[in-house]
Write a structure and sequence with these properties.
The chain has about 375 residues and is an alpha/beta fold. It is about 50% helix and about 15% strand. The chain has a six-stranded parallel sheet, sandwiched between helices. A two-stranded parallel sheet has the order 1-2. The chain has a two-stranded parallel ribbon with strand order 3-4. The chain starts with a helix and ends with a helix.
Length: about 375
């Protein structure tokens, strides 16, 4: 979301700098990935160079990068929470008379806080809670996150601005494109998972759920697409042990129309995450009209109300039962598909979201001026 939002703001005529951290040898790869975004060429990219552990913990080069960018009257949008460079940027913004806002991207939820919990508790005490409290606002991307952040600390200034999806799915997509490029899928029906192959995505639950689904519905396969985040071997082991390797296809990452074709051709999109802030892949699947089954940790309660999919606990039996229900009910799939397209068509596009964010930045700057006058 961060680069897409920045691109839209730059396209509207604002001066926007994007400061990230990546190895210099990956620069061409980064540019190629993002260059398709409207407005991307109008951004100024700054590589903070904090990919090594030492630089990550003590970001000297990153500090040099952000200190040149943050000046009085600037708006600094921090994406994430735990990176030391973000803390330094917030401190510098306060010192320079700038304002900053924070998009936590689900990093404050218990599933994230419990990882290295003692370290994160120390960081909160040592200044991160203050960083959140003194932000112009903390950006929430759904109603559930608003409630969660308020319960976490009622002094946070919280602003709700929805996430949206790329415009590339607004046009017609040929589902057969995915099958042509991946002949192993053949003409069989398939369930789709798309995302990083990481433990937080619940792939263990998906693998075990599919062992049950495969027994009950023999004409359905599973496609698990995305870059390996450390969970691929474990997931493949579950599938191999169940004797289902010939019914599970792992094509790696999918992008652009190929990804959309996979979503449009799927019988069901399943995302059994332990936790999500606002999954872009889930929004894309809904916009493609794909019925979905997600876990409660995906934090998308409005989906169930809209009748576009099923929300279940993080339990392999519950996941399997819900997916089977979608697969065996063609009328239900058609109704979910229609409702999903209607739901996503009513969501704001990137231009509207960028305008909302710029207006929110303006409110923060006004607050900063009022504070300065009182001082």
């Amino acid at each position: 979301m961060s680069v897409r939002l920045a691109s839209e703001q730059a396209q509207a005529g604002h001066e926007v700098y994007v400061c990230g951290n990546y190895n210099s040898d990956r620069e061409s790869e980064v540019l190629k990935f993002y260059s398709r975004m409207p407005g991307f060429q109008q951004l100024t990219l700054v590589n903070a160079g904090t990919t090594h552990l030492g630089e990550h913990l003590f970001p000297r080069s990153g500090w040099a990068s952000v200190s040149r960018l943050i000046t009085s009257g600037a708006v600094v949008h921090l994406h994430g929470v735990w990176d030391p460079l973000l803390f330094l940027a917030s401190w510098l913004a306060r010192r320079c008379g700038a304002t900053y806002v924070i998009s936590p991207h689900s990093m404050l939820y218990p599933s994230q806080m419990n990882r290295y919990a003692w370290c994160k508790k120390i960081l909160m005490i040592c200044g991160l809670r203050r960083m959140l409290r003194e932000a112009g606002f903390v950006h929430a991307i759904n109603e559930e996150e608003v409630i969660f952040l308020h319960n976490m600390d009622s002094t946070f200034r919280i602003r709700l601005i929805l996430n949206t999806f790329p415009e590339t799915i607004s046009g017609p997509t040929d589902p057969s494109e995915f099958r042509r490029k991946h002949p192993k899928v053949g003409n069989r029906r398939y369930i789709l998972f798309l995302g990083r192959l990481h433990s937080q995505k619940g792939l263990v639950y998906l693998g075990r759920a599919f062992t049950r689904i495969a027994r009950h519905i023999p004409d359905v396969d599973l496609v698990v697409a995305g870059p390996d985040g450390g969970e691929k071997v474990r997931f493949a082991s579950i599938i191999a042990t169940a004797g289902l390797a010939d019914r599970v296809y792992i094509p790696g990452p999918l992008y652009g129309t190929e990804k959309m074709a996979a979503m449009c051709g799927a019988e069901c999109y399943c995302q059994p995450s332990l936790h999500e802030g606002s999954s872009m892949a889930l929004l894309e699947a809904l916009a493609c009209g794909c019925p979905v089954v997600i876990t409660e940790g995906c934090c998308f309660p409005e989906m169930k109300k809209a009748g576009v999919g099923l929300v279940v606990p993080l339990d392999e039996s519950a996941i399997a039962e819900a997916v089977e229900h979608v697969l065996v009910e063609p009328d239900l799939r058609r109704a979910m598909s229609t409702a999903a397209k209607q739901m996503m068509a009513s969501r704001p596009g990137w231009t509207e979201i960028a305008n909302q964010m710029v207006a929110a930045y303006g409110d923060c700057l006004n607050q900063l001026l009022v504070k300065a006058e009182k001082a």
